[in-house]
Every structure is written in C-alpha cells, then in structure tokens.
Write a sequence for this structure.
C-alpha cells in the first residue's frame, strides 16, 4: 500500500487542483455539471421577488417560487446557479426493471375527484415533465397511469415510484378482476357489466370513462402477461371450469340482462334463458375447459351417461350421489320385516339437463327429493300387498312393475328411468329356516318319488333287457322254421321237378332211341354197302400189296442168300424169328443138380418160384 501511495503521490495535486477549480467555478461562476447518468433536482433557497409565493397546499414550485423546483436539470453544464441561492442534488435515473411495473404517487397536485382513488392521467411525458403535470391539473395521490420497464428522469421531489411485479396469469387459469375505482354498482348488482376499450383492465381511465363499475367484474382475463395497476385492480387466479367427457355443465348466471324464459308455459320451476343472460342458460357447456367467473356464474356438472344409484349399505358409486342411500327395509302383508337392495339406473339427456338443474339446483337434490322417497315408498307399498313368499316368488314381475312405475315418475322430472333392479333380498331368519325345512322335505319327497319311478323303470328295463336278450334265439328259431319250411317246399318242388324231368327224359330217351335205331339202321345199311365196296377195294389192293411185297422179299432173299450162303442165311432168319417172339436163346434161370446132375423135386420148385417172380416183375412195368 505504501508503494502505491509513493507511485501516486504526483496525482494528488491534480485531484486537489480539480476540486479547487470546481469549487471556484461553483462559487464565483455558478456552474453546475450534471453527469450523464444523473438528473439535477433543484431547491431554490430564496427569491428576490417577494410576490412569488406558492399557493396554499403546494410544495413544488413551478414558476420560480422558492422551494423544491418542478423543473429538473438534465445531464449537462449549467451557469449562474449560485450556491447561496440554489442547491442542486444529483439523483439517479429511475430504472424500471423487466417484469416490473412502476407505480407513481404524486406528492403534489390537484385534489382527487370525489369517490376516486386514482389520479387522472395527464400529458406529462410519462411523469418526466413535472411542470406539465402540475399545470395540467395532475392530481395528487396514486396515479392511474404507471411506468413500464425502461429508464426515466423522474423528479423524486414530486413523484414517488414503487416497483411491483407485472401480473402473470398461469396456464389453465383465469384471472377474476375486482376494480378499486369506477362508478358504484347499482342496487342488486353483484358485478360490473362488461365495458370495452380498457385493454383487459390495463387502461384504468379508459375503463372509468367507459362507465366501468367499481367492484367485482363479470369479465375474466385469460392466461398471459398483463400490466395491471394493483392500485386499480386486484386479481385472483382460479382454475378453469373442467367438464369431463360424459358430462355437461349447466350454467346459472347471476349477472347479465334479464332474459325471456324459453322453457315454455308447462315448465313452472324457473327461467331458462339464452346464453349471457341472467338465469339458467338453455345451452349447457360441453366437455372441455371453460374460462368461467366462479363468482358470477355457478356451473353444475351433470352426467349425461347412465347413472347407477344403489340403495345398499355397502356399495357407493364413484359419483357419490348415492352416498346417503341405504338398504330399504319393508314389511310384508303377513307381518314379516325384511331388507332388500335396489339399484336404479337413470339418464339425464343433454338438452334436459338445464331443466333438471333449474328445478332442483343440484343433482344431489334430485336424488334426495325425488328418487329416494319414490323408490323407497314404492317397494314398501309393494311389499305390503304381498306375503314374503309371494314377494320372493314374483321377484321378476315386481322388478318390471317397479321399472315401469319409476320411469313414469321420473319422466315428469325430465329424467329417463333406464332400469330398476332388485338386488339381494334378506328375509327373516326364522322364516328362512321354516322355508328351508319345507324345501328340504319337498325335495326329499321328490327324491323318493324319483327313486320309486327309477325302480319301476329299472324293473321295466330289466324285463325289456331279458326279452331283448332272448330275442336273438326267438329270431333264430323263427328263421329256422322259415328255413325248414322253405327247404321242405324246395324238396317237394325238387321231387316234382325230378318226376317231371324223369318223364320228359324217358320220353326223350324213347324218342332218341327210336331216332337212333332208325339212324343206326340207316347207318348200318350205308356201312354195309360201304364195307362191301371197301372190302372189295381193300381185297384188290391187299392182293396187289402182298404180291408186290412178296416179289420184293423174294428178290431180297435171293440176294441175301447169294451173299451169305444158304445155311448162314437160314440161321439168321431163325434167330430173327426167335427174337421177334421174345424167345431167349439162353434161359434166365438155369437149375441143375450138383456136379451137373439132377436135383430132383427141390430144384424144380426153386426154379419154378424164381420164374414166377421174374414174370411178376416183368408184368409190373408192363402194367405201368
């Protein structure tokens, strides 16, 4: 640090010199320098003209009076502003940041009009010209006009600036407006009627000049960013009215002009009017999101699908319209008390929903004022006209009668009765025991009767089965009798046929024999003649043949004799003769005695037996 002072010691005289120079100029020349980022606020300490006095109640001088001056000094150089007469305060520019709004409150000016809370805007260059503001009767107090983001030369002697956030309306929200200035509401009104030209309440004076009323406004502003003066309006963000699929929204408007009833003379339960008129609108809101002012319009969500309502202690639907309904207790004609559960299905048509709401106000009132007493009383009356057993036995008929009766009743209330269903019926325990015992006895009786019939049928079945088992034998016997009869008839027919056949055959044989005899005689005659002729011819031919053969053999014999000799040829001829007659020159069995002698009788017998055997063996091949 000491080194820094040593290095900068030569600067100190310059700085001191400049300060002294400015002081000299300020004192002796009245010079004032206003920097570029400042404005000069001037206070005049006195005036040489004693007649220049500010009016009573004024604190800002506009015409040279002593005191805080309305005129400011812009950045620059000014002379003759003597320090003993003028004090100049350097003030920074007024910067309004982004997403901010500059609210202006005037400390001086004319009084506000009676009943007004905001000063009227005047032409004063966005509050940068204080003299114009005061000379144009700018009013003291909170101003209707405001400053948007930017830089301003504001005389803070006259104006006090307060920065506030700009207004953001979120998605799926609407802004409900309450104005703090404007004409008072007429008697009986709860919200101001819509006026135009105020740019969604961003121009307060346009709203006031158009006759806007102070207080709750009928119009709402949608999601977006708005420059709203919080001294003029307050904003409450609420959700859009959401109507699910299967529902409609019936609107009851508390504001608007009085409309003509469109429901007709037959409807006596309220006025049904057109859209944007005061009363129940004839056209409901369809499913979706709607920007509705919940303080000026009531929207009743009405289901247009089938609604199930349960008169049961342990069952409640999601819509909870049947939350307070319970099981119905009834008394029969024979004095028994029992419980039964009932389900009623209803449907509210879309175009009838406004009439239902105009009549009942809410769907819960429809249930409590119509459905609950109607259904409970119907079943109580129905039960008293029957005993418990009859009620249980005729459940379907009673359910159909209930549906018809309740549908007729609901039609008078613009509601469709879709169906009526009787659920669980809980008769008295003592009666149920008696019924159970009786039913068991009846069932046992039925069982015994069925068993008896079963035995009878079983007996008949066994008899039929035995007959069926014998049936094949009966059929077989019957068939055999038929076969035997047919066979006897067949044999008779065969005998008759055979006799006839024999007669015919005998006649035929006789005729054939006669014919054959005649033929044989003729054949024999012809053959005899032929044989005679043939014999004659054959004789002649045979004779010629024999003669030729003889001559040939004689010639051959002659030649053989000449060739072989007479003796030798005779031996050959003898041998050929023996061979042709199967006579063997050497015997097959030769029986002779010992040493060539004769064996006697024994040898003869042996030879004889052997000859028989050989002949027998030779005869066997010949027979084959």
């Amino acid at each position: 640090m000491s080194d820094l002072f040593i290095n900068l010691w030569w600067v100190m005289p310059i700085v001191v010199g400049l300060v002294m120079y400015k002081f000299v100029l300020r004192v002796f020349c009245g010079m004032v320098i206003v920097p570029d980022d400042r404005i000069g606020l001037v206070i005049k300490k006195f005036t040489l003209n004693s007649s220049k006095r500010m009016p009573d109640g004024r604190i800002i001088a506009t015409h040279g009076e002593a005191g805080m001056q309305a005129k400011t000094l812009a950045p620059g150089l000014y002379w003759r502003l003597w320090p003993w007469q003028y004090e100049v305060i350097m003030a920074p520019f007024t910067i309004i940041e982004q997403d901010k709004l500059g609210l202006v409150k005037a400390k001086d000016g004319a009084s506000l009009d009676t009943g007004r809370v905001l000063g009227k805007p005047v032409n004063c260059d966005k509050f940068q010209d204080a003299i114009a503001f005061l000379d144009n009767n700018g009013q003291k107090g909170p101003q209707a006009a405001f400053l948007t983001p930017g830089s301003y030369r504001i005389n803070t002697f006259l104006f006090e600036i307060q920065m506030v956030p700009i207004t953001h309306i979120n998605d799926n929200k609407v802004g409900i407006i309450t104005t703090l200035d404007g004409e008072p509401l007429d008697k009986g009104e709860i919200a101001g009627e819509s006026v135009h030209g105020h740019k969604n309440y961003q121009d307060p004076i346009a709203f006031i000049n158009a006759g806007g009323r102070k207080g709750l406004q009928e119009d709402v502003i949608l999601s977006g960013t708005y420059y709203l003066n919080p001294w003029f309006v307050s904003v409450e963000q609420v959700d859009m009215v959401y109507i699910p699929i299967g529902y409609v929204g019936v609107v009851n408007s508390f504001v608007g002009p009085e409309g003509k009833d469109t429901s007709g003379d037959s409807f006596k339960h309220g006025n049904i009017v057109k859209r944007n008129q005061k009363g129940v609108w004839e056209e409901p809101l369809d499913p979706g999101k709607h920007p509705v002012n919940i303080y000026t319009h009531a929207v009743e969500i009405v289901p247009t699908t089938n609604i199930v309502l349960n008169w049961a202690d342990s069952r409640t639907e999601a819509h909870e319209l049947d939350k307070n309904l319970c099981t119905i207790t009834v008394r029969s004609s024979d004095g028994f008390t029992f419980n039964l559960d009932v389900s009623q299905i209803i449907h509210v048509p879309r175009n009838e929903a406004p009439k239902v709401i105009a009549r009942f106000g809410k769907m819960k009132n429809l249930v409590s004022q119509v459905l609950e007493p109607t259904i409970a009383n119907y079943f109580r009356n129905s039960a008293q006209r029957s005993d418990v057993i009859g009620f249980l036995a005729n459940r379907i008929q009673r359910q159909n009668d209930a549906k018809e009766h309740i549908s007729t009743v609901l039609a008078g209330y613009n509601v469709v009765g879709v169906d009526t269903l009787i659920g669980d019926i809980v008769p008295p325990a003592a009666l149920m025991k008696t019924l159970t015992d009786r039913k068991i006895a009846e069932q046992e009786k039925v069982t015994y009767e069925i068993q008896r019939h079963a035995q009878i049928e079983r007996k008949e079945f066994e008899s039929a089965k035995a007959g069926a088992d014998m049936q094949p034998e009966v059929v077989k016997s019957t068939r055999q009798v038929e076969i035997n009869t047919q066979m006897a008839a067949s044999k008779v027919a065969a005998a008759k046929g055979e006799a006839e056949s024999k007669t015919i055959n005998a006649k035929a044989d006789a005729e054939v024999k006669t014919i054959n005899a005649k033929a044989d005689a003729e054949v024999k005659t012809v053959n005899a003649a032929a044989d005679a002729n043939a014999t004659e011819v054959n004789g002649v031919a045979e004779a010629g043949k024999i003669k030729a053969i003889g001559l040939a053999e004689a010639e051959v014999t002659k030649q053989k004799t000449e060739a072989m000799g007479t003796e030798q040829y005779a031996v050959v001829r003898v041998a050929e003769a023996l061979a042709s007659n199967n006579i063997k020159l050497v015997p097959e069995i030769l029986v002779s005695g010992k040493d060539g002698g004769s064996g006697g009788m024994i040898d003869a017998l042996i030879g004889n037996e052997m000859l028989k055997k050989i002949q027998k063996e030779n005869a066997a091949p010949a027979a084959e």
Observations:
- The chain has a mean pLDDT of 81.
- The chain has eleven helices and 26 strands.
- The CA atoms of residues 123 and 133 lie 7 Å apart.
- Residues 24-165 form one domain.
